[in-house]
Amino acid sequence: MRVLACTILTIGTLLVAAPTRAQTYDPSFPVCLQTYAIGGGSIDCSFTSLGQCAASASGRAALCLNNPYFAQGGRKPPRQRGVY
Fold this sequence. Notes:
Blueprint: H1 2-16, E1 31-35, E2 42-47, H2 50-57, E3 62-66
Antiparallel strand pairs: 1-2, 1-3
């Protein structure tokens, strides 16, 4: 009976916990800046060009990269047909 009560309490605690942000990359901007640090790094996707990102990364342990989740101006990807 105690095991069941502990299990329910644990599940309830996990469901009530504040949600964390799952998406690291902002789909609104095409370029991201990834910084490196001893305690951990971060990713900032708020740049509109590689030149703008490179200026911000200058002199820091950082890397500019293309955003893999960039929305491409709202265009839908081309429809692919199945291969038969």
